[in-house]
Amino acid sequence: MSNANTVASDVLHDVPHHTVIVVGGGQAGLSISYYLKEAGIDHLVLEKHTVTHTWRSQRWDAFCLVTPNWQCALPGHPYRGDDPHGFMKKDEIIAYLDGFIAMVDAPVLEHTEVRKVRRVPSGGYFVSTSNGDFTADQVVVASGGYHTPIVPRMAERLPAGILQLQSSHYRNPQALPEGAVLVVGSGQSGAQIAEDLHLAGRKVFLAVGDAPRCARFYRDRDVVDWLADMRYYDMPVDQHPLREGVRDNTNHYVTGRDGGRDIDLRRFALEGMELYGRLDDFRDGCLHFAPNLTGSLDSADDTYNRINASIDAFIDKQGIDAPQGVPYEPVWRPHGERTSLDLAQSGIASIIWCIGFTPDFGWIDAPVFNGRGYPAHNRGITPQAGLYFIGLPWLHTWGSGRFSGIARDAEHIVGAIRLALDQTSTSLAA
């Protein structure tokens, strides 16, 4: 007899078995497949939609990388274009990924949703999907950490005539109805979407969050180039001053658009964008904001100047000849805090929610999650034998969730898989 946490042995014998099952066919899952194929390890990649689906379906039309092209270093597939210090646009990113897909030629089962992964008493895992059941000796979860869009409950009380979109569904200004647009959140997506609308001549209201910002270029180089020379991108999470707390940090806002530039919300304000603090509520026909706009802008600028100061110190220590840098000085300051906005009078016809995602690993039946649903792991290796994660922010380094660091993480995890398989073979032989 079986219960909710076990599977009858006769069932296990009737389903296809693979040494490794990889859940997720994005760049993380395909990178795992690359190293598994290199090691000659039987595996299957299960993808809910189609490989690299997110890049094709959840990016706006003007989307481009915020890190330079030279950081695109998927395993066996580095950037080979003629603009290493440029920033690939959406179509170019997809072409780059298509090349990676063809090169890896992973064994993928697309349109297959994984509904449950559970450990079986005899060892290994039972994997239930929308396309049949499987068993595996080991499972790599490569579905990322951005699953459920965050939209506050206040959204339910907004007038039905207001178009509401989550950032992953925004495409371009022309797709929105006439009228002003409220963008909620100023992380990478929020700041860039607000800029996209602003450049198109739309009236934009921006509810500013606590995201930090950084310079695009400083002292005649891309800030990413300086930080790479400073070995910041090689710093493991356990050596970061915030330790694992850095995983909760919001990404700095900056853009690679039009060759790359800063995103300065204060300058947008000078040009007519309306900035408010954090959006807290909607009642009595008014949007209500926290009185924290000044603090949020100042904090973002402090981070901007602090990063540049660390570059200054590096330049001085190394004796590098570089143009002199100067701290950023605000070009605009709020004249007091505005804490309410009459929705009808504002002319807002659309709201774009850019306040992030939460992870959803409820389909994994394993005792490895903390109170916030985040898996405990060391470089993607969990306390549960044979269960691994990859593609999460700061899994090991800053680049873990990006093109730049996924190869290192995938190679490490496949090394752990090989070791576990060797140990199992040795045990059986004994």
From TrEMBL:
<keyword id="KW-0560">Oxidoreductase</keyword>
<dbReference type="GO" id="GO:0004497">
    <property type="term" value="F:monooxygenase activity"/>
</dbReference>
<dbReference type="Pfam" id="PF13738">
    <property type="entry name" value="Pyr_redox_3"/>
</dbReference>
<dbReference type="InterPro" id="IPR024000">
    <property type="entry name" value="CHP04046_FMN-dependent"/>
</dbReference>
<protein>
    <submittedName>
        <fullName>FAD dependent oxidoreductase</fullName>
    </submittedName>
</protein>
<dbReference type="InterPro" id="IPR036188">
    <property type="entry name" value="FAD/NAD-bd_sf"/>
</dbReference>
<dbReference type="GO" id="GO:0050660">
    <property type="term" value="F:flavin adenine dinucleotide binding"/>
</dbReference>
<dbReference type="InterPro" id="IPR050982">
    <property type="entry name" value="Auxin_biosynth/cation_transpt"/>
</dbReference>
